[in-house]
Amino acid sequence: MEKLEAAMAKARERRKAVLREAAAPSRKTSVAVPVRSGQPVDWSTVPVVPFVAARARRFRIGALLGGRDATPYDLLRSRALRLMKENAWTRLAITSPEAACGKSTIALNLALSLARQKDMRVMLFDFDFRRPNLHKIVAHEPAHSMHEVLKGDVPFFDVAARITDNLVVGLNAGPGSNPAELFQSERFREILEAIQRDWQPDVMIFDTPPMMAADDHVNLMGQVDCALLVVAAEMSKLSNVDFCEKELGQLTNVLGIVLNKCRYPDDAAGYGYYDYYE
Ligand SMILES: Nc1ncnc2c1ncn2[C@@H]1O[C@H](COP(=O)(O)OP(=O)(O)OP(=O)(O)O)[C@@H](O)[C@H]1O
Ligand SMILES: [Mg+2]
């Protein structure tokens, strides 16, 4: 008898939960959105977000301006591209030990530099769901965020924006919840694959959170082919750089370390690079 009462109480609770679910207005999506449309996307239909020179100057986006300011990023592009092509890699993550080393700045510069090669299709994603900031640099706040896309709540097309003909960005309008769990989920892997199949990019660049700040990278790096570690001169702790380089090497292929914010660089761009892969 007690068992029966307990079972009935459980059933009542379950029914209430179902009714609550149905009544909640915001829980609409993940059911309706297909993981894959199966159709190649026509990039010319993606809304354009112009990126103006004044903004590029303000945010150190030299790769848009060209000339001397673009040189270090073009060098980085050529070296990264050579290694990626040799190994048939398409997914590149940009990370750093601590915050504010220049990941987002370098990710956008590298994407723009790659996109200057007109035969390339480049995608840049903001995968820093704790403190996203690429949308602030680009000055475009999408109606939805990449973390909603990767949960299956929103189609990628609703977030995608085009900076140039062959550079599509996936940004966030604000932070997302539980990023570490999101990167661990099967859904995330499936959606990322679906985006790659439908959009057919040559290179996908992921701006990611700093490694010392959280454990997001542990699962995220398993989904990329390679990574660059950005360290800031006179700011990044040597012990952190050492630790992150080793950890990153266990999670993915390390393309190299970018030494950023160098006060005494070889050139005028405040930027250095060395490649130790191979
Ligand atoms: N080479 C550089 N020289 C001087 N300042 C730079 C350089 N690169 C980036 N910065 C500046 O450093 C600040 C942090 O850069 P950015 O946002 O790219 O770093 P981040 O690693 O993405 O930070 P976060 O970890 O918060 O996402 C910005 O104000 C940016 O303009
Ligand atoms: Mg950033």
From TrEMBL:
Signal peptide: none annotated. Keywords: ATP-binding, Kinase, Nucleotide-binding, Transferase. One of its GO terms (molecular function) is kinase activity. Transmembrane segments: none annotated. InterPro entries: Bact_polysacc_biosynth/exp (IPR050445), P-loop_NTPase (IPR027417), Wzc-like_C (IPR005702), YlxH/NBP35 (IPR033756). Gene3D superfamilies: P-loop containing nucleotide triphosphate hydrolases. It holds the Pfam family ParA. Coiled coil: none annotated. This is CpsD/CapB family tyrosine-protein kinase. It comes from Albidovulum marisflavi.
